[in-house]
């Protein structure tokens, strides 16, 4: 019980310095063996007003450490423009709160992180360079990485354990052995951190297979196993390097969900068995995730399985022990009881924090407000379509418009659509194309218009965040072909649909029957609380409440309720705006208390 005694007796002291180092088999805190019981959560996915509550929840479950991804693209959305100060971007504040709550911190800064997050955390501006290669020594990529490392290091350096802070280890890259084998790149990253004053131990994280551990390992770094649930897993780590400790860097209490699937519900038996093994053998571990949070805005990522594309839902509930809204689940109670059973006699876990209050909101009657077709910006003329990134756009939507000359009906092929399109001929909706289903073609009907006009409204959904397909530009990535003829001379309209754009929309009714409508309402609240906006009356789109982008909804499910945290609501008048790709008439919405 030495490790847990150490944990109970050594809350992080704000002003006192500690030492953190490796023996061949264990982590050493102030010279004594230390078992990390870590719970992962991501500051960008949790309203910053709730950071402390979620950290306290993890602590009450038995965790002594918080692991946190830093999403590069969240902190440098525009090349050279960094944000480490506003709201959820304030990484230093998150780390300080963890320290105040007596928790140690594992920092996972990437530059690539996966995390079911857009482009795995890499900034989309990289994709403006047509032939760029990522996660390797491509000098253009490394120049951007160097700038990111310099800026992030300046934020976290004062918070390292060597400087009296709680950050005890930093991860180099993430699951690199699942992607590539550029060891020069991994060592260049390590050297960058060292050069910028990050003088704490490092670790890597890979699947427990020989080729992944070999390709993803860094000499001298602790070996993280995703996951380490058996002696065989730890033996593989030992074969890779017997001179550093290994730990389960991602033990999975839950799992992710894609649009069109059932909710992933792994249950408690598997993770309870794994945690018991890790506790019995006094191995350190990190629960990925102890609390998932929400992919607000355009931040949800995607995988490349299925028919080539699997976008993630907005909720990152993950069936985690602490659910999306911050409540303890039965899985939480089971893991808390299990971990508590290893405490020294007379020691108890902290009380579970009170839940955040929730509210229901009675029916809100939205009305038609305006059409996207009434708010197109100045067109950019292109001989052929290009992806979003070629026009300097990262997220949102884009309209591609051309006049049909020669062939005017027949089989239209989009090569290749990323990711979802509604197609219009002479202003009339004729159908959709869905990359998720492997769709690439649509039939263009004959019309009596001499010069038919074709419009393709494309939604860029989440960029792929894992494995070899992560270069995932959005929009029409190559060309459009009608009966084998390549269509030329396009007008392109960028619609990033930023929060500012939506707040500045004006009412209109010029295209009231053409799909691509905004609906709007004002609703009044006597009291605020967390709620979930029930979108069962709508088809596919995005919701903004008081200017905050809650994320995507889609009638195919499984998610029909979007989380709206209390800090984004106010007593008195509130505003909701819905953009729907298919809905022609307004439907009511309401606020409910749960994700399902």
UniProtKB/TrEMBL annotation:
GO terms for molecular function: beta-galactosidase activity. Residues 518-574 form the Beta-galactosidase galactose-binding domain. It is an enzyme of class 3 (hydrolase). Residues 26-341 form the Glycoside hydrolase 35 catalytic domain. Gene3D superfamilies: Galactose-binding domain-like, Glycosidases. The active site is at 175 (proton donor), 250 (nucleophile). The keyword Hydrolase applies. Residues 385-495 form the Beta-galactosidase 1-like first all-beta domain. Keywords: Glycosidase, Hydrolase. GO terms for biological process: carbohydrate metabolic process. Belongs to the glycosyl hydrolase 35 family. InterPro entries: B-gal_1-like, BetaGal1-like_ABD1, BetaGal_gal-bd, Galactose-bd-like_sf, GH, Gly_Hdrlase_35_cat, Glyco_hydro_35_CS, Glycoside_Hdrlase_35. It catalyses: Hydrolysis of terminal non-reducing beta-D-galactose residues in beta-D-galactosides. Its EC number is 3.2.1.23. This is Beta-galactosidase.
């Amino acid at each position: 019980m030495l490790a847990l005694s150490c944990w109970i007796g050594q809350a992080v002291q704000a002003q006192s310095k500690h030492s953190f180092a490796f023996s061949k088999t264990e982590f050493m805190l102030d010279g004594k063996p230390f078992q990390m019981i870590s719970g992962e959560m991501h500051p960008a996915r949790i309203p910053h007003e709730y950071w402390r509550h979620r950290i306290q929840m993890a602590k009450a479950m038995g965790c002594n450490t918080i692991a946190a991804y830093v999403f590069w693209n969240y902190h440098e959305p525009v090349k050279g423009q960094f944000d480490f100060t506003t709201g959820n971007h304030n990484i230093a504040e998150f780390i300080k709160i963890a320290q105040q709550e007596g928790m140690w911190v594992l920092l996972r800064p990437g530059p690539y992180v996966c995390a079911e997050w857009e482009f795995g955390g890499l900034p989309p501006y990289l994709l403006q360079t047509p032939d760029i290669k990522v996660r390797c020594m491509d000098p253009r990529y490394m120049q951007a990485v160097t700038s990111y490392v310099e800026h992030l290091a300046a934020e976290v350096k004062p918070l390292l354990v060597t400087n009296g802070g709680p950050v005890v280890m930093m991860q180099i890259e993430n699951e690199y052995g699942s992607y590539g084998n550029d060891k020069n790149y991994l060592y260049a990253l390590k050297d960058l951190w060292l050069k910028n004053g990050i003088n704490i131990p490092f670790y890597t994280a890979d699947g427990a297979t020989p080729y992944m551990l070999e390709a993803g390992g860094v000499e001298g770094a602790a070996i993280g196993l995703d996951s380490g649930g058996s002696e065989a897993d730890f033996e593989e780590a030992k074969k890779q390097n017997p001179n550093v400790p290994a730990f389960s860097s991602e033990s999975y209490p839950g799992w992710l969900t894609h649009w069109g699937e059932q909710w992933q519900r792994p249950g408690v038996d598997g993770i309870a068995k794994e945690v018991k093994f890790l506790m019995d053998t006094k191995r350190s571990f990190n629960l990925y995730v102890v609390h998932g949070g929400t992919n607000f805005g355009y931040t949800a990522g995607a995988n490349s399985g299925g028919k080539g594309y699997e976008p993630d839902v907005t909720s990152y509930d993950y069936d985690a022990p602490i659910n999306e809204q911050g409540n303890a689940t039965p899985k939480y109670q089971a893991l808390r009881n299990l971990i508590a059973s290893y405490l020294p006699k007379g020691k108890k876990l902290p009380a579970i924090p009170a839940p955040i209050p929730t509210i229901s909101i009675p029916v809100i009657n939205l009305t038609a407000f305006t059409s996207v077709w009434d708010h197109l910006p100045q067109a950019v003329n292109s001989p052929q379509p290009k992806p979003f990134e070629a026009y300097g756009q990262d997220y949102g939507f884009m309209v591609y418009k051309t006049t049909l000359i020669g062939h005017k009906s027949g089989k239209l092929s989009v090569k290749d659509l990323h990711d979802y399109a509604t197609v219009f001929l002479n202003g009339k909706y004729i159908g959709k194309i869905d990359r998720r289903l492997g769709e690439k073609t649509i039939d263009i009907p004959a019309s009596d218009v001499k010069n038919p006009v074709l419009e393709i409204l494309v939604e860029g959904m989440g960029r792929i965040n894992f494995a070899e397909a992560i270069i995932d530009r959005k929009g029409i990535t190559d060309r459009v072909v009608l009966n084998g003829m390549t269509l030329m001379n396009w007008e392109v309209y960028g619609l990033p649909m930023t929060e500012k754009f939506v707040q500045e929309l004006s009412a209109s009714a010029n295209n009231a029957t053409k799909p691509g409508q905004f609906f709007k309402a004002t609703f009044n609240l006597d009291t605020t609380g967390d709620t979930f906006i029930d979108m069962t009356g709508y088809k596919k789109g995005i919701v903004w409440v008081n200017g905050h982008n809650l994320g995507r909804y889609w009638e195919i499910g499984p998610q029909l309720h979007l989380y709206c945290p209390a800090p984004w609501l106010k007593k008195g008048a509130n505003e909701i705006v819905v953009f729907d790709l298919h809905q022609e008439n307004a439907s009511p919405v309401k606020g409910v208390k749960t994700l399902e």
